[in-house]
Backbone:
C-alpha cells in the first residue's frame, strides 16, 4: 500500500462514481495526464476524458506519474473533438488565464464548487475543461462552456501546470461536499482531558502555590488563579499530560522520593 492510500476506501470511491468529468483538451505530455489523474483521485473524481492527446493513448509516462491512480487511467475516454467529449454533459466549466473578449460569467473555484454541487444534486452532469499546457484553451472551446473559473493567485506569477490546476478545482469540489473539521487536536494514544480532570489539576496546583506563599497579596489571589487556569486551558491538555503535570507538582513539592544516583564505576572500592 502506497503512502496516503487506503484500498478499502478507494473501492468506495469507485462504487460512488460521483463528480464532474475532467476534460483535457489536446494534452501534450503523458506525465501531465498522470498528474491530473492523481489529482482527480485525491478528490474522488474518476471520469477523465482526453481530446486528441498529442502523444496518443495509452501512455506509459502517464501511468508512472499517476502514483497508482489506475482507477482513473484504466477508464479514460478518448474523443476526437471537444463537442463529442462534452455531448452528454449539462453544465461545463472551463479554466482560462484570460477571458479573451468573450462575454462569460467568471467565478472562483470555490464559488464554482458550490454551483457544481447544486447542479449535481439536481441531477445534472458536469464537466471541467482544461486546455493544452502551452497555450491553454482557445476561444472555440471556451465558447462551448457555460462558466469560466478564475483562480486568483499572485498577479505577478500566476502560472500553474496542468496537474496543479486540476487539483485546485477538484479540491474545492471535494471539500464543498465534506463535513471537515477545520482544526482539531491530534492526541495520539491519549485523549483530551475532561473538565473534572482539569479542575483537579487546578486545585492541586493552587494548593501547592498556597503552601509556598506564592499568593503574597490575598486580594489579588482570585485574578491570579483565573489567569493561571486560563493559561492551562489554552494548552488543550490530554489526560496523559494532566497526569504528568500532577507528577511534576509532586516532585517539586518533595513528596516523590528522589532516586539515588547509581555509584560511578570509578568510586568502587578497590
Residues:
Amino acid at each position: 500500500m502506497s503512502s496516503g492510500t487506503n484500498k478499502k476506501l478507494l473501492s468506495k470511491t469507485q462504487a460512488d462514481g460521483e463528480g464532474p468529468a475532467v476534460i483535457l483538451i489536446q494534452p501534450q505530455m503523458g506525465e501531465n495526464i498522470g498528474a491530473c489523474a492523481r489529482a482527480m483521485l485525491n478528490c474522488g473524481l474518476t471520469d477523465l476524458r482526453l481530446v486528441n492527446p498529442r502523444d496518443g493513448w495509452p501512455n506509459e509516462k502517464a501511468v508512472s506519474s499517476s502514483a497508482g491512480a489506475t482507477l482513473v487511467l484504466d477508464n479514460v475516454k478518448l474523443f476526437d473533438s471537444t463537442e463529442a467529449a462534452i455531448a452528454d454533459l449539462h453544465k461545463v466549466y472551463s479554466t482560462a488565464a484570460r477571458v479573451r473578449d468573450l462575454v462569460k460569467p467568471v467565478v472562483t473555484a470555490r464559488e464554482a464548487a458550490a454551483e457544481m454541487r447544486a447542479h449535481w444534486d439536481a441531477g445534472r452532469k458536469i464537466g471541467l475543461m482544461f486546455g493544452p499546457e502551452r497555450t491553454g484553451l482557445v476561444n472555440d472551446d471556451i465558447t462551448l462552456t457555460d462558466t469560466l473559473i478564475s483562480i486568483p493567485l499572485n498577479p505577478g506569477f500566476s502560472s500553474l501546470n496542468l496537474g496543479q490546476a486540476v487539483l485546485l478545482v477538484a479540491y474545492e469540489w471535494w471539500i464543498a461536499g465534506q463535513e471537515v473539521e477545520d482544526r482539531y487536536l491530534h492526541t495520539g494514544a491519549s485523549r483530551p482531558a475532561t473538565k473534572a480532570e482539569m479542575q483537579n489539576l487546578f486545585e492541586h496546583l493552587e494548593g501547592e502555590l498556597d503552601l509556598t506563599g506564592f499568593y503574597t497579596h490575598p486580594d489579588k489571589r482570585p485574578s491570579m488563579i483565573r489567569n493561571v487556569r486560563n493559561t492551562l486551558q489554552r494548552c488543550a491538555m490530554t489526560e496523559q499530560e494532566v497526569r504528568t503535570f500532577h507528577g511534576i507538582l509532586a516532585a517539586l513539592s518533595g513528596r516523590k522520593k528522589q532516586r539515588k544516583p547509581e555509584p560511578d564505576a570509578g568510586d568502587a572500592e578497590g
